[in-house]
Amino acid sequence: MSTRKKVLWGVAAAVIIFYCLFPIAWIVSLSFKAPSDLSNQSFFPSALSWENYELIFTGSASDLFLPALRNSFGICLIATAISCLLAMFAAYAIARLDFPGKTLILSTALVVAIFPVISIVTPLFNLWRNIGLYDTWPGLIIPYLSLTLPISIWTMSAFFREIPWEMEQAAQVDGATTWQAFRKVIVPLAAPGVFTTAIIAFFIAWNDFIYGISLTSTEAARPVPAALGLFTGASQFEEPTGAISAAAVIVTIPVVVLVLLFQRRIVAGLTNGAVKG
Amino acid sequence: MASIEMKNIVKQYGDGFPAVNDVSLDIADGEFMILVGPSGCGKSTLLRMIVGLEDITSGEMIIGGKRVNDLAPRDRNLSMVFQNYALYPHMTVYENIAFPLRLAKMPDDEVRRRVTEASDVLELKDHLERKPANLSGGQRQRVAMGRAIVRQAEAFLFDEPLSNLDAKLRGQMRTEISRLQRRLGITTVYVTHDQTEAMTLGDRVCVLRKGKIQQVASPRELYEQPVNLFVAGFIGSPPMNFLPATPEGNRLKTPFGDIEIEASRASKLGGHDLLMVGIRPEYFEDASLVEEHKRPLGSTFRARVDVTEWLGDSQYAYIPYEAPEAITNQLRDLSRELDAEELRTQAIVSIDSTSRIREGREAEFWLDSRKVHVFDPETGENLTRDAEAGAELTRLATQDRVEQVEESQSRASAEQETGGATAASA
Ligand SMILES: Nc1ncnc2c1ncn2[C@@H]1O[C@H](COP(=O)(O)OP(=O)(O)OP(=O)(O)O)[C@@H](O)[C@H]1O
Ligand SMILES: [Mg+2]
């Protein structure tokens, strides 16, 4: 690449990074502004203030925020785990076996994925109240599965298709049962796919707002995005902007940590060396 | 160790295509059997039915006297080397080789002993802790072999194991496989495309065409007494030449003059107007270089040479000839089936490398008429095949094999004894 090209690429990258990260930087900056400082007409806070963080962790907003944080973690992790496990079996079957209705399953999954959430949330609200799932963890885990499962099945079956059939046949000839071949050969090879899927599924569940706000009413199950919407200022006349920003920063952290943690597991080309010379 | 018997094996895939059609084949205990044939003739399918990865549509598969049609691969105790090796990329070489033993729940020290033994034989000692991704093609191939020999399997199955290697490594691995098989004395079924592998490795070679067995015989018998046009054209490189011929008593009129054949063979040709004579390239010679006493054993003819190829140790000349349409069509079908380049009606003849025959000139050739075969152009059947002579060749090969196995095994045990003795004295 010529120097000119390099410079152009650099500039383009900088613009894109700025475009993507500017709102985040703004939120971070807002979270450090004291309520009186919010409209100081400048990007940086006049003085660094921890007031908002105190508010959500120990202050008046803490009984709203802390249970919500716990709910979000619990519900999203459980939903992710279940959906990964189910998707693993489903995707394996789709990638490996020839059975009638295979395309039907895949297209149904796609339909479910693009089905507008808002149109089922009201019936679900009524149903959940009647059968006692309203404002409970399972009451959110189940709809979250409907969000995460289709995409998990799609991504994972793509990963499974990449694994050469011979791997499994070799294992069977070596004396493995179908289950042993799956567990000892296919699962380790599919691990990058499983982690990728887990991250995507976790994000989807973590970011949900509509189910969270509609199917919960107390801190028994209310997740963070819903709780943020219920923040109020210290007084009636104050905007809760600062507190919301601080909470938003806090909920972003697990996501970043998760990606950094799993990034090393998502090594592309793990199947290198399996076949050919 | 076990024999493998196949009785009327048929395989139809979902779309009704008979990939293997009524194959009956007996493979003796300790025998090295080669499956060859053009692409798509059902070699892999047959192998995969033996190992249990493919259902058998009908027929019986008997391994070691036991019917295995309905047994899962793991219950057949066979080991297989796949065409692309199928190593487990997430395991080290050691764990790859140990995998079958781990599945059999073998104690750790026994696993170590066996893996070390196998890796010694295959010279993989220095690579045991590496991952397959970091190995060369030949090393990967050896790891795949290691995984196969580490456990006491009833038989080895190979599906074109050397097709991914370069020519030099292929030669090396070929001798290695041969040595290993003799030493272990294990029944082996080996699928290949490669003429050299088929001829050098096998005790017997099974030639398949469109899912049907054409001939099962020792390499020598296949070469000298092929049953039909297909086998004759498939075995040998450069391939056998096929010339049109019309019989007249003991003589065959061909574009290369009259060929006289023995009365006993000529008598088998009755009732045909048009025949095909099969002559291998090396049955020809530059007439000026043939010793006087040999001349009467064949016939001489003059022909114009189109192209010559000098290869140092040998020389080939290409001689075009005219053929009636029936023969040309038959030859075209044959060459298409054998994946050969468009077979023009020209003969490839092998002449001495010192011969001064030049391109574009006319020259005199001699052809040895004792070994020519005559085929029926319609059915492809070899009319002059001497079944007894063929059977004798295969019988000799079987005898050779038994001797070789005994010898290499007694040598191996002798090695072990001296090894044990030195260890004891140390
Ligand atoms: N899964 C399948 N479904 C349908 N037909 C198949 C299937 N697998 C193989 N065949 C057909 O069976 C025939 C034999 O295939 P096979 O793989 O045994 O050939 P092969 O002799 O091993 O060829 P090659 O030398 O190219 O490997 C082919 O004509 C192929 O089209
Ligand atoms: Mg094949």
Automatic annotation (TrEMBL), chain A:
GO cellular component terms attached to this protein's record: plasma membrane
TM region positions: 7-28, 72-92, 104-128, 140-160, 185-206, 243-262
Membrane protein topology class: Multi-pass membrane protein
Chief site of localization: membrane
GO biological process: transmembrane transport
Pfam families: BPD_transp_1 (PF00528)
Domain of life: Bacteria
Signal peptide: none
All copies of domain ABC transmembrane type-1, residue ranges: 69-262
Keywords: Cell membrane, Membrane, Transmembrane, Transmembrane helix, Transport
PROSITE patterns from the UniProt entry: ABC_TM1
Subcellular location: Cell membrane
Family in the record: Belongs to the binding-protein-dependent transport system permease family.
Protein name: Carbohydrate ABC transporter membrane protein 2, CUT1 family
Provenance organism: Blastococcus aggregatus
UniProtKB/TrEMBL annotation, chain B:
Residue ranges of the region described as Disordered: 397-426
Keywords: ATP-binding, Cell membrane, Membrane, Nucleotide-binding, Translocase, Transport
GO cellular component, one term: ATP-binding cassette (ABC) transporter complex, substrate-binding subunit-containing
Limits of the ABC transporter domain: 4-235
Gene Ontology terms: biological process: carbohydrate transport
Gene Ontology MF terms in the entry: ABC-type transporter activity; ATP binding; ATP hydrolysis activity
Pfam families recorded: ABC_tran, OB_MalK
Keyword ATP-binding belongs to the record: yes
InterPro entries, per database record: AAA+_ATPase, ABC_transporter-like_ATP-bd, ABC_transporter-like_CS, ABC_transpr_MalK-like, ABC_transpr_MalK/UgpC-like, Mo/tungstate-bd_C_term_dom, NA-bd_OB-fold, OB_MalK-like
Name of the molecule in the record: Carbohydrate ABC transporter ATP-binding protein, CUT1 family
Organism: Blastococcus aggregatus
